[in-house]
Write a structure and sequence with these properties.
Helix content: over 70%
Order of helices and strands: HH
Radius of gyration: 33 Å
Shape: rod-shaped
Mean pLDDT: 86
Distance between the termini: 112 Å
Number of strands: 0
Number of domains: 1
Number of helices: 2
Structural class: mainly alpha
């Protein structure tokens, strides 16, 4: 009978340790996921800003140089034309 009580105490203690470990792991997982999400969101925002700036530069280049479609002249070519 005493052996069964000892086994029961060990199992209860082991269950408590496993339960606390799982709880701790879940909390840590949620913290890491939140941190990852925030970092990714910041990187996406920075990338979107950089792409927007590159698009503006691209449009400016086409405005200055002309895009070569339909005989259009760029602003640089128009400014160099004799009066």
């Amino acid at each position: 009978m005493r052996t069964w009580v000892g086994i029961a105490i060990v199992l209860v203690a082991w269950s408590a340790i496993v339960g606390l470990s799982m709880s701790s792991a879940t909390v840590e997982q949620e913290r890491l996921f939140s941190e990852f999400t925030a970092e990714t969101r910041g990187q996406v925002h920075a990338s979107a800003q950089a792409l927007s700036q590159l698009d503006s530069v691209h449009q400016d280049v086409h405005l200055l140089a002309g895009d070569g479609r339909g005989g259009e002249r760029g602003l640089a070519q128009l400014l160099m034309m004799p009066p």
